[in-house]
């Protein structure tokens, strides 16, 4: 590096930064061999400068996952050394003319610059080149006629959302995973999915499902969810206010806050964005900022501060320095959150949904095929949904109500049809497909409206294993199907 610095007049940190960027642009990974550990050590701010978020995003993209903190330094050093060795060879080839080397690198950069991609389009894979986008599900045979029952999840005029209801042990999770597996097996370009494994971690431990669908399992605490929940698509005052209120409402949906605490939570997040300038804050930044504000203003400790402290105790998301881009629209994930404290499980899911909702609603409507079937971009499965539905979380309601035109399907698994009919919002009205296994029904009228026929509550509580009631658009009455065999 000394020769590069002397021949060009550029500092060591600038050459190290350029070397890192160059190495990350290559298709291959740097060698695993030993690197030179005798060089200058830089602080992050000195090495990365204003390009830290971009370089970290490129590093994560090259690795295919979020790097563990213990391996980060080694990865960076290997990339930097590979880049510097290339620059040194080029300097020798150009007869040690530093000015020629700089012009050469500028030409190389200009020729390899990608075309600009705007907005959320960067997050999406290309729509499949297929004549039909139809996602057709074989739900199982009718128990009376034995004829197979099919349902097209994304057909015209039909909501792609799915509700699976039944008490413990009736096979809700089994059925939900079976649907995801069938979609993966039978759809030419299957949509990625996102599963929130709330209860026991049994989905994350289902190796057959994980391998068959090529899903990535992230177990929290320990692994990090590959997005920054407080990142923004734009930095306008309006966008900051919307993000701050959405975060405040998410906290309020899980933690009981009084009027003073609600206002304080809103001001904390707004002031944090202002304090960070153009940088994106992490949840740990918010917790540290709140600690200072409580101390400086002599505010008594309360449930809001305790909630924010949990974010520091349990790192859940990747660092915001790695950038706003993520791959949740391109890869399937199972988020195993069952080891987290109960409130933090809900907050984790809601923060992910908050982040995705803001991006989904900025996307153009998903394209239609010639039959009017809408391209399905993503499926979100929420297991043990009865823990989430009563929270009055605005984003959960909005995402169920508004994302169908964007090609996103929501699958809610819960214990009873009554869980869906909340005081301020009936989630069941938005479901295009409902599968109801054996359960206790206290409000049969709601279920009758959902399935379109008379329901015997006693029959519902004694359905045989694997048998579910459903209704498809071509049927005016509920159907009994054998969704799975004991």
Descriptive overview:
The chain is globular. About 2% of the residues have low confidence. Strands 5-6-4-7-8-3-11 form a 7-stranded parallel beta sheet, covered by helices on one side. It contains 16 helices and 13 strands. The longest helix is centred in the N-terminal third of the chain and has 25 residues. Strand 1 and strand 2 form a beta hairpin. By secondary structure, the protein is α/β, with parallel strands linked by helices. It starts with a helix and ends with a strand.
Topology of this structure?
Elements: H1 2-8, H2 12-25, H3 44-48, H4 52-63, H5 69-93, H6 98-112, E1 136-141, E2 148-152, E3 162-165, H7 172-186, E4 193-197, H8 207-213, E5 216-219, H9 237-254, H10 259-276, H11 283-296, H12 303-313, E6 333-336, H13 342-360, E7 378-382, H14 394-402, E8 408-414, E9 421-422, E10 425-426, E11 433-436, H15 444-451, H16 457-460, E12 467-470, E13 479-482
Parallel strand pairs: 3-8, 3-11, 4-6, 4-7, 5-6, 7-8
Antiparallel strand pairs: 1-2, 9-10, 12-13
